[in-house]
Design brief:
single chain, mainly alpha, Arc Repressor Mutant, subunit A, 2 domains, 5 helices, 69% helix, rod-shaped
């Protein structure tokens, strides 16, 4: 068994599929001159991330998956954050208009802002 070699995504997928078909990672590892632990790690990564597990870096440690999820998850999170940002911008605009109309001193403005912030935290 040799270590530190690059294995193409195609080879990793072939090894994983064969390991799953035979149910014997050790046998497959011997056939491809790999360590059984490497084959088992590839199988775990494939189960967790699918074929995307092998589209990571060509060198270095094994692929640990995309920490930000799939493309759809990224888009959903971005949409949610944009909505929250828009709501916060609206809140700020409303507060600024309110403060302009009230003609409050700086200290009074700070007190109003603190109350508004505490109300916003409670509503979450």
């Amino acid at each position: 068994m040799k270590s530190g070699r690059y294995h193409s995504p195609e080879k990793k997928l072939r090894v994983v599929k064969e390991s799953q078909e035979t149910g014997n990672a050790t046998l497959v590892a011997c056939r491809y001159e790999l360590s059984p632990s490497k084959v088992n790690r590839w199988v775990r990564e494939y189960r967790k991330y699918g074929e995307a597990a092998f589209n990571g870096k060509p060198k270095g440690k094994s692929f640990k998956g995309n920490p930000y999820g799939t493309e759809n998850q990224k888009l959903a999170a971005e949409k949610k954050l944009k909505k929250i940002l828009g709501e916060k911008d609206l809140e700020i605009a409303i507060l600024r208009n309110l403060l302009k109309k009230l003609h409050l001193s700086r200290t009074e403005k700070i007190e109003v802002a603190k109350k508004w912030i505490s109300l916003a935290r409670i509503s979450r």
